[in-house]
Design a protein that fits this description.
single chain, 278 residues, alpha/beta, Phage tail protein beta-alpha-beta fold, 3-stranded mixed β-sheet, 9 helices, elongated
């Protein structure tokens, strides 16, 4: 009887005792948005874009306000005859993405726009490609899957890196490489080399594939980018929308063009004088 009473008292004490505190579940970290994702989202906003006799700088300033984004005009365009302060932009677009409206506004000047780590960059096509692919980056890969490393590089810097889907598991080869302050294109090429793969450039796209396929594509591909992405080609009519030029510089399709000066007429050639005999 006494043992039974003791058991009942012990059970009652346990029932009234406070429950032990449970460890709090670890908080799930909030998903952070990268600056590049924020910039892409801003440029995808749909709205109206109307400019009448505005300058390129007016358009750029309006874009900065709308997208809350850093926008840089390549200084090279100042050196070759294009005045960004002239009122030469007239577009009236309804319900367009901000990036598409900007591209249409820049098209008459043979200018392109694209994202880089520092914001939106406006230049010639070759200038933009060089800017995107020659951004200085650092990597520290230690047994990282190749596809993971290059996709992260592309996402963080606005570059176009395409991995051949036929590579399948080859794209997941682990790579170990540490580089500091190297052009992005060089990093992708070195990472590919470590993974026994190859890279060919097609305009602003780095295409990663097998060495065999890369060799077949090389004849129709572009070479590595150069520090100065502008191509010098004849553009005899000067700046689009401006007066014809006889000499100087002009923005040419696909790059910066040097307008050839009219050659001076050749100096008349005097006939040799005959010696007179006495």
């Amino acid at each position: 009887m006494r043992q039974t009473l003791c058991r009942l008292l012990a059970a009652a004490a346990l029932a009234t005792a406070p429950a032990p505190a449970r460890a709090a579940a670890p908080a799930v970290p909030a998903k952070t948005t990268s600056p590049m994702d924020t910039a892409r989202k801003a440029l995808d906003e749909v709205g109206d874009m109307s400019y009448q006799n505005k300058s390129i700088n007016d358009v750029i300033n309006d874009l900065r306000d709308k997208a809350k984004l850093a926008v840089t005009l390549d200084p090279v365009v100042y050196q070759f005859g294009l005045d960004p302060n002239q009122p030469t932009v007239s577009v009236n677009l309804k319900g367009v993405k901000l990036k598409d409206g900007l591209r249409q506004a820049l098209a008459p000047f043979n200018l392109k726009c694209g994202l880089t780590r520092d914001g939106l960059f406006i230049s010639t096509e070759e200038g933009l490609t060089a800017k995107q692919l020659r951004q200085r980056v650092s990597v520290d890969c230690d047994g990282t899957a190749f596809s993971t490393a290059v996709k992260q590089l592309a996402a963080d810097n606005g570059a176009n890196v395409v991995i051949d889907p036929r590579l399948k598991e080859k794209a997941n080869a682990t790579v170990t490489l540490k580089l500091e302050d190297v052009p992005l294109e060089s990093v992708v090429r070195l990472l590919a080399e470590v993974a026994d793969l190859s890279v060919v450039r097609m305009s602003n796209v780095l295409f990663v594939t097998t060495p065999e396929r890369a060799e077949k594509l090389r004849a129709s591909s572009d070479g590595p980018t150069q520090p100065n992405g502008n191509v010098v080609v004849p553009f005899p009519n000067g700046v689009p929308g401006g007066p014809p030029a006889l000499g100087g510089f002009g923005i040419a399709p696909g790059g910066v063009g040097v307008v050839p000066a009219v050659p001076a007429p050749p100096a008349p050639v005097e006939a040799p004088k005959e010696d007179k005999k006495p």
